[in-house]
Design goal:
Strand content: over 45%
Helix content: 10-25%
CATH class of the largest domain: Mainly Beta
Shape: elongated
Radius of gyration: 36 Å
Largest sheet: 16 strands, antiparallel, barrel
Strand order of the largest sheet: 18-19-20-21-22-23-24-25-26-27-28-32-33-34-35-37
CATH architecture of the largest domain: Beta Barrel
Structural class: alpha+beta
Distance between the termini: 94 Å
CATH topology of the largest domain: Porin
Number of strands: 37
Number of helices: 13
Length: 748
């Protein structure tokens, strides 16, 4: 027993001695630094955190080592204490003289790589940072589609402990997305879902699109887009289980999304809970909207619409800042929602950041933002700013986020965008019972990233050759005003149908700007030089117009736009009125134009439209309007009839009229062939009337023409094709039909 007690005590004393010895501190009387070449002794002492007369123990040496290594200046470091002296031995990392990238020809990729890596020329080399940079380079190349890239690193040692660092990169082929598939409880057809996401299948003609290559960050964003789409179709509990890429061959992948839609839910009871000092009568519009939504499929966009309506009313009533809390409760297949309105503290905009614009100039985007830095934060203006940017149609996606600023009552607005191809090459062909037409053009909607639209096109038919060049700057001098220039030349040969020829050259200069919310005003001047040659077979009235003309007009435009979005519109309407006033003209022709179009989603995955238009032309001086100014019904608005081959006739000539009215209705229809992808079908009905002959009212042929038909939009390997088949319902004996028409085009 005594021996055991002795051993325990002996062990305790030995442990205590070692502990005391290990923690014994010495007062440092001198610090000795060696091995340094570029970095001064005093700097190294500062990095160590130790000074003369400090108490330093063996335990503190690890902390000194850590501090010195964390500087990234040293390859090797050793420290020890001996006889009240602290010895620091270092081996400095070499200095990088040059960083060289081999195998990269693209200046854009090269610049991105240089900006993203941590190691820089004239900085200290560090193996840990080198490995991190290698991973950064690989990740960036993956995001640009180069999944099969290889990176070799070479270090060339130079004099004075300097090196050249070389990245030898073999890009290989880009990883193409050969196929996109959706599995699980996906509900919707693959074509519809492909239109929702950013990633797209590889097509040879999409040579400028980067979306056809595998991109991990884009795939994650695609997941969010898919989920949002389902949330707007009633699938409240949708889950994107996974997304993965399966290699199909040496350079291609199949991108697969696994979707669990779960059951569809519908709006149930919706109500609003207001603060006591709020007038409930101001929100009657919102409560009426609640009634319309009952039993409709759940939609997160509808929720956002309601919140926007509430906020707009609140601001209009000059209440303080408010917050709408959305409380949802599921009962069976219904969602009951309570919108609880609370007054909140007023915030101010500290900063607005634009992120993701690699091509588009920041000034072009900022010009669409309705809220400035330093202004009180306004949710409505914030939402309108995002819609304005989306309406530019330069971007695949536009998303905003609001973050807390440096001060307690400030906010930072981040606007994240993803750019898309904005160029377009298009061609079209029409054929009918009495002739054909061809059109071709090239268009760029965001020239050099400045928001400038450049459009050149050529249209050739049996009777007309028309060329046009248009330049439009929607942000003239960083304002909200458009500046437009158009130059056009037209050669018309209507000897066979109307007894005359005409050659016109002219130009138009105009501007457009927002006058009030959703109301825009346009002002333009149009100037034309024209030569009319009347055939010997023409009537006496026509022969009087043989000669040269100069016409100058002032154009006024009023546009009222209540569409939910300008492109891929699903609801709202567009109304515009235009008038051309003759200023200096040989015939003094006044032209009035009115157009109205409404959009409505009648059922799920359906977009229906109804439009009407009117155009009238008359001479202020009482003269006959020129032959070339007479009005015809465009073939695209009255399908089933050949353009220019209906209406009043003078002998064998189609002479047009003074007035034209058109009604169009279209609706998308469900697929007939479920297994056929990339095909959309629409039903349409057209009706039009052309009348008025100023020089001889007896020539009027003012019967209403109408037609119905079927249209197909088909995404083929060579580009999108549009077909239409139309059958006239009401017509006149002299009308010439055009039963079939198609167009083809692609974008870049």
């Amino acid at each position: 027993m005594f021996k055991l007690f002795y051993k325990i005590n002996l062990f305790f004393f030995i442990f205590l001695f070692l502990l005391i010895a290990g923690s014994k501190a010495e007062i440092i009387e001198k610090i000795d630094v060696s091995g340094n070449q570029r970095i001064s002794i005093e700097t190294i002492k500062m990095f160590s955190g130790v000074s003369v007369n400090d108490n330093v123990s063996e335990k503190d040496l690890n902390e000194i080592l850590k501090k010195l290594y964390n500087t990234n200046f040293f390859d090797l470091v050793s420290v020890k204490i001996d006889n009240k002296k602290l010895f620091i031995r270092v081996k400095e990392n070499p200095i990088i003289q040059n960083i060289i990238f081999e195998g990269i020809k693209s200046s854009t990729i090269l610049e991105e790589l240089k900006n993203n890596i941590s190691l820089k020329s004239r900085s200290s080399f560090n193996n840990i940072l080198l490995e991190k940079d290698k991973k950064k380079i690989k990740l960036f190349l993956n995001e640009t589609g180069y999944y099969f890239s290889k990176i070799d690193i070479f270090i060339e040692e130079l004099e004075d402990n300097k090196i050249n660092l070389t990245y030898n990169i073999s890009l290989g082929e880009k990883a193409k997305i050969r196929k996109i598939s959706f599995i699980g409880d996906k509900i919707f057809k693959d074509k519809k879902l492909k239109g929702v996401i950013l990633s797209e299948e590889y097509k040879p003609w999409k040579f400028l699109s980067g979306k056809k290559y595998l991109n991990e960050s884009m795939i994650k964003y695609d997941e969010r887009l898919l989920k949002n789409y389902y949330l707007n179709k009633g699938y409240y509990n949708v889950v994107i289980n996974s997304s993965f890429a399966k290699m199909t061959d040496n350079e291609s992948f199949e991108l697969i999304f696994n979707i669990d839609a779960n059951s569809k839910l519908f709006f149930g009871n919706l109500q609003i809970d207001l603060p006591n000092d709020f007038s409930k009568s101001n929100y009657e519009e919102v409560e009426k909207f609640f009634k319309k939504l009952e039993n409709e499929p759940y939609s997160i966009n509808r929720i956002e619409d309601i919140v926007e309506k509430i906020e707009r009313i609140t601001i209009n009533e000059q209440y303080e800042s408010i917050k709408a809390n959305v409380n949802e409760k599921i009962v069976s297949n219904k969602i009951n929602i309570n919108f609880k309105i609370e007054e909140t503290e007023k915030f101010f905009v500290e900063r607005v950041n634009i992120l993701g614009n690699n091509i588009t100039l920041e000034s072009v985007i900022r010009n669409q933002i309705e809220i400035d830095e330093g202004d009180p934060f306004n949710q409505i203006l914030y939402a309108k700013s995002l819609n304005n940017i989306k309406a530019l149609n330069y971007f695949e996606s536009v998303n905003g986020e609001i973050l807390d600023g440096k001060e307690f009552n400030t906010k930072i607005i981040n606007i994240n965008i993803t750019e898309k191809a904005t160029g377009e090459i298009f061609a079209g062909v029409g054929t009918g019972t009495d002739g054909s037409n061809f059109s071709f053009g090239v268009k760029e909607n965001n020239y050099l990233g400045r928001g400038v639209k450049v459009d050149t096109n050529l249209n050739v038919s049996d009777e007309r050759i028309k060329g046009k060049f248009i330049v439009s700057n929607p942000n003239y001098k960083n304002s909200d005003k458009n500046l437009d220039l158009a130059i056009e030349a037209t050669s018309i040969d209507r000897v066979a149908t109307s007894g005359y020829k005409s050659n016109v050259t002219g130009f138009t200069v105009g501007t457009e700007f927002e006058y009030l919310d959703d109301l825009r005003f346009g002002l333009s001047t149009k100037n034309n030089f024209e030569k009319i040659s009347v055939d010997a077979s023409g009537s006496a009235k026509q022969k009087k117009q043989d000669g040269n003309y100069f016409d100058s007009f002032i154009g006024l435009d009023f546009i009222y736009d209540k569409r939910n979005q300008r492109y891929q519109t699903s609801s709202g309407f567009l109304s515009n009125y235009s008038v051309n006033l003759p200023i200096l003209s040989d015939t003094n022709t006044l032209t009035n134009i009115y157009n109205y179009k409404i959009f409505k989603e009648l059922y799920e995955n359906n977009i229906s439209t109804f439009s009407l238009s009117f155009k009238g032309a008359s001479s202020l001086s009482g003269d006959d309007i020129k032959l070339s100014e007479r009005l015809y019904i465009p073939g695209r608005k009255l399908r089933g009839f050949e353009s220019g081959k209906i209406g009043p006739k003078d002998g064998s000539d189609y002479i047009g009229g003074n007035y034209v009215s058109v009604i169009n209705a279209t609706t998308t229809i469900p697929k007939i062939l479920e297994n056929v992808q990339n095909v959309d079908m629409v039903l349409f009905a057209d009706a039009a009337n052309i009348w008025g002959v100023d020089y001889n009212s007896s020539l009027d042929n003012d019967g209403i023409r109408s037609s119905v038909g079927l249209g197909l939009d088909w995404l083929t390997p060579v580009g999108p094709l549009t077909f239409s088949l139309a059958t006239p319902i009401t017509k006149e004996p002299t009308d010439i039909e055009e039963t079939f028409r198609f167009n083809i085009g692609t974008s870049f």
